[in-house]
Write a structure and sequence with these properties.
This protein is mainly beta and 273 residues long. The chain has 2 domains: 135 residues, Cupredoxins -  blue copper proteins (Immunoglobulin-like, Sandwich), CATH 2.60.40; 125 residues, Immunoglobulin-like (Sandwich). It is 5% helix and 47% strand. It contains 3 helices and 21 strands. A hairpin with a 2-residue loop joins strand 3 and strand 4. It binds copper (II) ion (CU).
């Protein structure tokens, strides 16, 4: 639940040229996660969580990410965005026990994924090495009441390159068993990222409501007003909506198999006290 609204703005300081510098410390580490009652999975994580920290900055900020690999396999951090090739996290494997500093400017505005880029890529990603990178426009996006991050993914329990479970924010059925509590009229903004491995397409459907959709979040003008969107791996976007009526409302992949295997959640909407 904490991952939903946890944004890491980094350690903020000002560079001699007046620009903002944001520094982040990320460690890749192994973590055993109970993904279903009694079912334990060895996840590969950034900072002991899947998805990794939601790294947030404003367009034009300088980012410095101190990455240390505390696992037994080489890893990297490959950010989507615009930056020099040497900072792309592809050709410089960070060996077990080693460190690397990624330094680049936050661009472009939007919501982007980051993930490990070591081969075999499918296993490094599906094990849990991915997260969200938000670049806010200067001056920010229009004010909303709450912002949330949802990263869609799967879990391949038996390592046969097929998913056995599906989820948002890694734990199947979590928001179904623990509905997200919101109020009538509250404007929500969801940063939605698809990091699903092994299946070609994922989707998000909101019940009894419609949302404004901003693909990749690069524009402040919504591209669509809908209740269902699809994303291939690494596709992402921003959803904005509010509920008019009290009640329990499902959100889930509009792919029955994914929903039945864990990718489903509930918004519980109440009158504001
Ligand atoms: Cu890796």
């Amino acid at each position: 639940m904490a991952i939903l609204e946890d944004f890491d703005n980094g350690k903020v300081s000002t560079l001699p040229d007046g620009r903002t510098l944001r520094e982040y410390w990320i460690v890749s580490e192994i973590m055993i996660v109970e993904v279903a009652p009694g079912v334990f999975y060895e996840a590969w994580t950034y900072n002991g969580r899947v998805p990794g920290p939601t790294i947030r900055a404003t367009e034009g900020d300088m980012l410095r990410i101190y990455f240390t690999n505390a696992t037994m396999h080489p890893h990297t951090m490959h950010f989507h965005g615009i930056h020099p090739g040497a900072m792309d996290g592809v050709f410089e494997p960070v060996l077990p026990g080693a460190s690397f500093v990624y330094e680049f400017e936050a661009a472009p505005v939007g919501v982007h994924p980051y993930h490990c880029h070591i081969m075999p890529l499918a296993s490094h990603i599906s094990r849990g090495l991915y997260g969200t990178f938000i670049v806010d426009p200067k001056g920010g996006r229009p004010q909303v009441d709450r912002e949330m991050v949802m990263v869609m993914s799967g879990i391949d329990l038996d390592f046969d390159n097929a998913n056995d479970l599906y989820a948002v924010n890694f734990i199947p059925f979590y928001y179904d068993k623990h509905p997200i509590q919101i109020f009538i009229g509250e404007r929500l903004r969801i940063y939605l990222v698809n990091m699903l491995e092994f299946d070609a397409v994922n989707s998000f459907h909101l019940h009894a409501n419609f949302f404004d959709y901003y693909p990749t979040g690069t524009s402040l003008v919504p591209a669509e007003y809908t209740d269902t969107i699809s994303q291939v791996q690494a596709q992402r976007g921003i959803l904005e909506f509010s509920y008019q009526f009290p009640g329990k409302y499902m959100f889930h992949a509009h792919k029955t198999e994914f929903a039945e295997l864990g990718w489903t959640g509930i918004f519980e909407v109440r009158e504001k006290p």
